[in-house]
Amino acid sequence: MAIAQERPVDGKRAPPPVKGKAAAPPPVKPSGGTAGAGAAAGNRSEKRETGNRSGANARVAAVDRADDRKAIVAQVTEFRRAYNARESRPIAELFAADGLLFDQTAASLSGRDAITAALGERFREEPEAHMEIEVESIRFIGENTAVQQGHIVLVPAPGKRPVHDR
Question: pLDDT, tens digit, for every residue of 84-131?
Fold first, then answer.
C-alpha cells in the first residue's frame, strides 16, 4: 500500500502529496499542535543542516527526529493492530480527511469514508486475513514530511500463500 495526502500545517496547505509505494500508513496526527505528512512537527531542536542541498531541502532542519520516528512507528503499529482486528474506521482515521490510500494495483481510495468502506469490504471477503509490517526506513524529506518504507506480509487465510508488498 502507498499513502499520499495533504494535511494543513500551521494553517497552510501542505505541498502536493508524494506518491509511491510504502508499507506505512500515513502521517502522524498533530503533536503539540502541529503535524505534517509523515511526521509530527512538535518536539525538535532548531539546528539547521548544512551541505550540498538546494532549494527547499536546504531549509530542512537536521535535528534529532527520534520523537518523530517513534510517532511514525506508532502509527504503523496502530495500522497493523486495527487491520488484524478488522477495524476499518480506526485505519481511516490515521489519514487526513482527503488522504489517499493506494492498493497493490495502484488503484486509489480518496478520503476516510472510501477507505473505511473498501477495508470493510476486504475484511468481509477475507475474514481470516492478517498482516505483518516491517519498517525498513524512515527518511525526512521536508520539515513536516517523511517517507516511510517497509515490507508488508498479508496472509489471506491460514494455509494460503502470503502476499508480500513494499
Answer: 999 999 999 999 999 998 877 777 899 999 999 999 999 999 999 999
Q: Is the dihedral angle over the CA atoms 66, 27, 145, 34 positive or is it negative?
A: negative
Q: Please name the residues in contact with 39: beta carbons below 8 A apart, sequence gap of 6 or more.
A: 27, 28, 65, 68, 71, 72, 140, 144, 145, 146
Burial (CB count <10 Å: 0-12, 13-18, 19+), residue 51: exposed
- pTM, entire model: 0.62
C-alpha cell at 21: 509505494
Domain 2-165 = CATH 3.90.1150.10: no
Which residue in this structure is represented by grid cell 538546494?
A: 54
Helix (H) or strand (E) run with residue 113 in it:
helix 112-125
